[in-house]
């Protein structure tokens, strides 16, 4: 599979690179939601988080762990939203896994993750118990 982010990894397409190691690349989002909006990607083409090999998952999370505070201090932002659109149905447009690091400010006009869904399901206590069972057994 060859996608636009694979081409960025191969340096066939330019990017504003902020970090790179043997497993991970981080670069500025071309259509930023805030100054410093950064994408952290595994170098190996992977669609969703669960498709990552464990070593790549560790490297991706470690890079995000180290980068997020740097992005915030560079942008002088007191907070960040760190998020993955994990699969097409969630809004993932580029089908190469990427973690968004978005610097956030008080009154920046953005919302919390809870603003993603317009409607919330009404779930009884019995159903919560069923759900926990299903997840544990999966
Ligand atoms: P998502 O909706 O989570 O798949 O987000 C894809 C992100 O990739 C968007 O925020 C785009 O602005 C960003 N993007 C697309 N093409 C490029 C590119 N060539 N360089 C940097 N960011 C890109
Ligand atoms: Zn790719």
Protein model, in words:
Helix content is 30%, strand content 18%. The protein is α+β, with helices and mostly antiparallel strands. It has a single domain (4-137), classed as HIT-like (HIT family, subunit A, 2-Layer Sandwich), CATH 3.30.428.10. It has a five-stranded antiparallel β-sheet, with helices on one face. Strand 1 and strand 2 (24-28) form a beta hairpin. The longest helix has 22 residues, at 54-75. The two termini are 29 Å apart. The model has no long low-confidence stretch (mean pLDDT 97). The structure holds adenosine monophosphate and zinc ion.
Q: Taking strands numbered 1, 2, ... along the chain, how are they ordered across the largest sheet? A: 1-2-3-5-4
Q: Which structural class is indicated by helix and strand composition? A: alpha+beta
Net shape = globular
Taken as a percent bin, the fraction of beta residues is 15-25%
- End-to-end C-alpha gap: 29 Å
Bound ligands, named by name, code or SMILES: adenosine monophosphate, zinc ion
Q: Please summarize the sheet with the most strands.
A: 5 strands, antiparallel
Question: Which percent range fits the helix content?
Answer: 25-40%
Which architecture name does CATH use? 2-Layer Sandwich
User: In the CATH hierarchy, what is the class?
Assistant: Alpha Beta
Radius of gyration, in Å, reads 17 Å
Seen as an oligomer or otherwise, the chain set is single chain
CATH superfamily grouping = HIT-like
E-strand count: 5
Low-confidence stretches: none
Number of helices: 3
Q: What is the CATH T-level topology?
A: HIT family, subunit A
Question: Could you spell the SSE succession in H and E letters?
Answer: HEEEHEEH
The pLDDT mean sits at 97
């Amino acid at each position: 599979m060859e996608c636009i982010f694979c081409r960025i990894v191969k340096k066939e397409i330019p990017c504003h690179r902020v970090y790179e190691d043997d497993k991970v690349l981080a670069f500025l989002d071309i259509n930023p939601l805030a100054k410093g909006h950064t994408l952290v990607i595994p170098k190996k083409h992977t669609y969703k988080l669960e498709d990552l090999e464990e070593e790549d998952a560790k490297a991706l999370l470690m890079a995000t762990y180290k980068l997020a505070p740097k992005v915030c201090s560079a942008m002088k932002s007191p907070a960040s939203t760190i998020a993955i659109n994990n699969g097409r149905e969630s809004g993932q447009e580029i089908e190469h896994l990427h973690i968004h690091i978005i610097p956030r400010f008080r009154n920046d006009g953005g919302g919390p993750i809870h603003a993603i869904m317009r409607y919330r399901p009404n779930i009884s206590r019995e159903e919560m118990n069923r759900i926990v069972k299903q997840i544990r057994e999966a």
